[in-house]
Amino acid sequence: MNAIARSRTARAAMRHVLGAALGASALCGPSADATDEVSLTPAKATALEWIEHNRSGIVDVNQAIWGYAELGLQETRSARTLMDWLESNDFTIEEGVAGMPTAFVANYGSGQPIIGLLAEYDALPDLSQVAEPHREPRIVDGAGHGCGHSLYGAGSTAAAIAIRQAMAAHDLPGTVRLYGTPAEETVIGKIYMVKAGFFDDVDAVLRWHPMDVTEAMYTTSLAMASVKFDFAGVSAHAAAAPERGRSALDAVELMNVGANYLREHVKDDARIHYVITEGGGQPNVVPARAQVWYYIRAYVHADVAAYYGRLLDIARGAAMMTRTDVSVHIDSDTHELIPNRPLAELVDANLRLIGGPDFSSTEETFARMLQEGFARESNIEFDRPVLEEIRPLPQEPARTSASTDVGDLSWKVPTGGLTVASYPAGIPIHSWPVVAASGAPMGHRAMLVAAKTLAASGIDLLTRPATLEAARADLRARTAGAEFRSLLPAEQTAPESIR
Ligand SMILES: [Zn+2]
Fold first, then answer.
1. pLDDT higher for 370 or 29?
2. Measured in angstroms, how far is the CA atom of residue 45 from the centroid of ligand 1?
């Protein structure tokens, strides 16, 4: 609790200086030492200049990954694009890590501290879309970057290379590391990289995500397990010999009835949802195989584990009722995100130093047209085309109902980051306007804000041991007494595909 108490003092000091020196280039900042200021150092200036100077190259990398639009664990060309870029900037690459061909780790420098940046680059199915403000698939039935991960991958990698330039020019200590993390959408990549120990030696991790708002992240997320239940029965003619059949589909249906009754006895934050992925071929054959796929979510992982235990009982009960057999496979399991106050304050201060995205009138018109196109399909009304302001850092961590595979690593390493407004205000993520914006100038502008903020924050972490120590102390305080217990079997390795 000491760390949190200390960081509150630092926050109060920052507010004081912000009020006194609004518009000045030096902002009072985060670390354990409240007298430290987050400012534009010569090393940061080098990094920011590199990003400005290489603007078109960074945009080209985004456009390449945006165009490939590869699904999780198939991001061969996207990962190669980032690895080639890093390699040509003197990073040493370890590729195909943690049993995933498209996962990699890239290092520059040596020794501690090691500052990690996350890159994601997986796309979403059925969201192919041109970079124009009307609905039009680029490839029929193709995938698209509906979560903006092309921007995420290119922006984080640009930040890592910019930090590398500053390290060389200013003789900074330590290591900058870029984690190439595949298959975020199915909550796989980082889970297995954490499991394989790739985050054991890193001192802090930074990341960003495209969103419709700009803010330093100070947030939790829902813990989540992804579990498949396979029932095996006996096929028979459904009319001529039903008494000899054992329906696996009946078992799935009975299991779902049980799960729906379970809802009456879970906490408010619980989210339990399923799809039937296999349920037989045609009505006159008793289905011998059936599968139901569940996501189980809650604010704390211990609750997910408890609900998972209840679902196991329900599945066994369904199997008994139908005299079928059930087997269970957990694809993935992520803990809730542990927020980090000192890192949130550091990123917030650097974000204010850089400034949020200042969209051009052309970009605002583009955003407005995307909103109008989406409104015609959804009847949702929109107010402003874009949200340019930097939102204030909340006093308490924000609660979101999403899950992320960043969750597990945030238990091991202090983790911070930001979101930058990259698409029109009020548009839901995982939609076609997000794909369009991610391949267009408004997305590019946001990506550069993110790259600069990450680079500046990373340089501070390389050079401010007190901030790093405060971040570690904050993590220790928040996880004290809590147990990290993954539901994944110890010997389980990453899947070869997402289905
Ligand atoms: Zn995403």
1. 370
2. 29
